[in-house]
Amino acid sequence: MSSTSRAIVAASVGVVEAMKDQMGVCRWNYIIRSAQQSTKNHLRSLSQAKNLSSSTSAMVSSKVRDQEKMKKSEESLRTVMYLSCWGPN
C-alpha cells in the first residue's frame, strides 16, 4: 500500500469516527441496548412472578381442599358421637 492510500484510509476512518460522535450513533446504540436489556429483564421477572403466583394459587387451593376434608371428617365424627350418645337404644 502506498503512503497516499494509507493516508486516505486513515482520513476516512477519522471522518467516520467523527461523524459517529457528531451524530450520536454510539450514544443511540447504548440507549437502545440498555432499553432492550431492561425490557428483557422486566419480562423475565414478570414471567417468574406469574410462575410463582400460579404455584402459590395451587398451594392455596390445596390448603382449601385439605380444610374442607377436615371439616367433613369432623362433621362425620360429630354425627357418630351424637348417634352413639343419643341415638336409638
UniProtKB/TrEMBL annotation:
Instruction: Cite the record's Low complexity compositional bias ranges.
Output: 53-62
Superkingdom, natural source: Eukaryota
The family database entries (InterPro entries) matched by this protein are listed as: DUF3774_wound-induced (IPR022251)
Annotated spans, Disordered:
46-72
Pfam families associated with the record: DUF3774
Quote the biased-composition stretches of kind Basic and acidic residues, using this chain's numbering.
63-72
PANTHER family in the record, alphabetically?
DUF3774 DOMAIN PROTEIN-RELATED
Name this protein carries in UniProt: Wound-responsive family protein
